[in-house]
Amino acid sequence: MTGGATAEDVWHGVHLREMARLAAPVVLVNMGMQAMGLVDALMVGRLGGAAIAAVALGNFYVFNASVFGMGLLFALDPVVAQGVGARDDEAVALGVQRGVLLALGVAAVVTVALLPGEWLLDGLRQPTEVVGETARYVRRRALAVAPFFAFLLMRQVLQAMGTVRPVLLAVLAANVVNVAANWMLIEGHWGAPALGVTGAGYATAAATWVMAGGLGWMAWPRLRPTVRPWRAAAWLTAPLWRLTRIGAPIAAQWFFESFAFGFTALLMGWMGTASLAGHEIALNLAAMTYMVPLGISGAAAAVVGRAIGRGDQDAARRDALAAIACGVAFMTLTAALFLLAPQWLATRYTTETATVAVAAALIPIAGVFQVFDGLQGVTSGVLRGTGDTRIPALLHLLAFWAVGMPLGAWLGFRTPWRERGLWIGLVAGLAMAGVLQSVRVWQRFRAPIARVRLDG
Fold first, then answer.
1. What distance in Å separates the CA atoms of residue 244 and residue 92, rounded to the nearest whole number?
2. Average pLDDT over residues 385-389
3. What is d(CA 248, CA 444) in angstroms, rounded to the nearest whole number?
4. For the whole model, what pTM was predicted?
5. Is residue 440 part of a domain?
6. Per the domain annotation, does 287 fall within a domain?
7. Which ranges of 341-402 would DSSP assign to H, the alpha helix?
8. Is residue 449 part of a domain?
9. Per-residue pLDDT tens for 304-326?
10. Which domain covers residue 421, as residue numbers?
11. What is the pLDDT of residues 234-253, one digit of tens each?
12. Domain tally for the chain?
């Protein structure tokens, strides 16, 4: 990046510390949301590897059914953040109201997509002992699709405005509810029925309702000016289409990446229940550590967007470089942990010998891709803050589906490496995505960056 921001400025100035301060609450929010899936996996782990595999497959199903809609709502990052930076309250309100319309449509589609569980999973040749439990878990999660997208909409808007505290409190409350409800419903306590994996689905759905309702209640004074009065212009199709065009590449980018991991889970299912359960343990750990660069990515999108909105591209450069430095530094530390203690980490979930063996073989590979995963995650947020969404989507398509997945499938089924071969493909995809997006960030900041506008 050129002009006004060098690595020395970041490391010796206040920008690195400031980025860490801004990103910390966003990181905690992401970790709190990820923790609900982690708690589900840990608390059903006592039921055996098949239960872990069912939750793994269920989370894969829910996330991949939802990810395109999530990406559409992430279009609010540059729209709202740049509007806030420019002090354009009308643009912010219209952006939020159009986001509401998108969220309603997306929630309806995703809810329907989560209903046909058994026949879809059977068609994907998943283990018979897992299919029924997975389908029931997913249908219970479907009960909370609408509040999930409502929460996501409010989170993105508040994050772009720089108001994260109510989001963090809502997520903390949801985690308390999730732990308590899991304890009651998985094995049956306090007079509740023992529902196993299905109970975990009910617990997460209840926690999601608490999360959305709590955030709406706490953040209403801040959000009210953005939704009242309702603007007639929010219904105009041309700006809605522009917002969708910003969000669709983000959605595609997320889908290309998430389905690479999801497709790997499907291939693991072909290898057996132990392979799928071990994959879920390693992926669960990697997903938890990824919440830190993902949080930094969200903070970067907001601060870079606000800087561009107020016309301060030098500040946007400094913020971008500080965010990348923070993300890579953290993931370097987690890489060391994964490489040094794979067996210990695997046995935190289960003591089943076959499952632990697979997980312990995969966790060091997750350590290898930590730095690349952090790099591609943070650079995605930086580019999103500038309004650049199409090129990153193409780069993810190339990295994961032209290189990573074909390589992983070949190594997994054509060599003795099996599960490790599949994960080496993930390493290749993440490494390529991280490097290519870093080059794109450098290119993006070489020229003036215009503010994103939906109207006019």
1. 16
2. 93
3. 20
4. 0.80
5. yes
6. yes
7. 342-346, 353-386, 390-396
8. no
9. 999 999 999 998 998 999 999 99
10. 7-444
11. 999 999 899 999 999 998 99
12. 1
